[in-house]
Amino acid sequence: MSDKDDIPDSVVSLPGYSIYRCDRVNIIGGGVCIYIKNSKFIKFSIISQPCHIGDIDLLHLNFSSSHIQFSLVCLYRPHYIPEENDNLLFDKLFQMSHNNSNLIICGDFNYSDIDSKSRNFIQCLNNSNLEQLITEHTRFRLNQTPSTLDLLLTNSSQLLTEHEILPPIGNSDHALIGTSIRTIHKSNNTILKLKRVIIVINYSNLDQELASYHSELYFQKFIFDISSLESEETLDQNSTLLMLRQKNSLWKKFKRTRLQTDYICFRTYSNSMSRLIRQDKATYEQNIALNANKKQFYRYVRNFSITHVPVPVLKSSNGNLCDDLTEISETLSNIISSL
Q: How confident is the model over 251-274, as pLDDT tens digits?
């Protein structure tokens, strides 16, 4: 991601979310951002601390509320950085871990083999009291060995729960990492207790049933399904939900079998679904643009322009800079009323 002068927040904003950015400076690519879902029920005070360590982009957010305090860090480490930048990163991880009791670090570390080729990084985790929670592969590319590039670190293992590897977004070859933050929410002096439902699956029998299907016929079946779906002009909501469930099913099958044919099935279906969704979105936007009711069009446009705009510094009528919000509002009111 480039800097904010080239790409404003309104271009990359998501409806219902606030965005925090750490942009790569003077170079194309790189950069990290964090989207925080706006909530009416839990209010956090958030302090943003973006920084750069050589070519490493790091965004540090401190969250505090009446229920919990924790720090969330998102970083991107290029694979080509020199050793001295790695040492600076290790010092930064050590410092953050010792200054924050509830620390969560996630991102693309680009260590292709974290078990054997990254001894200095593993030593850093031990010295910093950080635990690495991801044990499965997170990057999958055809004709390449899967690798664990995306990591999830914490110095409080009780803080996070329910880690899972989810299907990639769009055409990305990086899987999503899902996790939950464990909190205690108090309402009227009552502690809400969360109950987990555990479902026991006999994977041995399941694998035997899945193995009975012929991979090539299975692949041809989904090619046929994709062709029939692409013949539709638009998708309704139910069709989209069914396709998402089918995509997740294909991804889970590949995770179980690790077969190349199953991955090709997943990737082909995912690409076709993305094309259909883009076509459906274009058709929807064309319909609301031609609709006589312009309120629907303006409401749709506003959803993509919601962003936090800072209050500008103004000069009052006597030439002094306004530093008080009340004075700024009165100055703006006088300017508008004079037009």
A: 888 888 888 878 888 888 888 888
CA neighbor of 73 nearest in space, from 138, 6, 128 = 128
For β-strands 176-181 and 160-166, DSSP reports them as antiparallel
The set of long-range contacts for 168-173, using a CB threshold of 8 Å and a minimum separation of 24, is 168/140, 168/270, 170/270, 170/274, 171/270, 171/271, 171/274, 173/139, 173/140, 173/141
pLDDT per residue as tens digits for the range 193-247: 555 556 666 667 766 666 665 444 444 444 444 444 444 444 555 677 778 888 8
pLDDT score, position 219: 47
DSSP character string of 236-248:
-HHHHHHHHHHHH
The alpha-carbon radius of gyration of the chain (Å, integer) is 25
Q: If 0-12 CB within 10 Å is exposed, 13-18 middle and 19+ buried, where does residue 309 land?
A: exposed
Asked whether residue 71 carries a pLDDT value surpassing 50, the answer given is yes
Dihedral in degrees, nearest 10, Cα atoms 286, 287, 292, 298:
-60
- Alpha carbon dihedral 116, 119, 124, 125, in 10-degree steps, equals 20
Average pLDDT over residues 57-82: 87
Question: Pick from 114, 37, 113, 50: which is nearest to 76 by CA?
Answer: 50
Q: How far apart are CA 339 and CA 334, in angstroms?
A: 9
Q: Which amino acid is at 186?
A: K
pTM of the model: 0.56
Strands (E), the chain: 17-22, 32-37, 45-53, 56-64, 69-76, 103-108, 131-132, 150-154, 160-166, 176-181, 186-187, 190-191
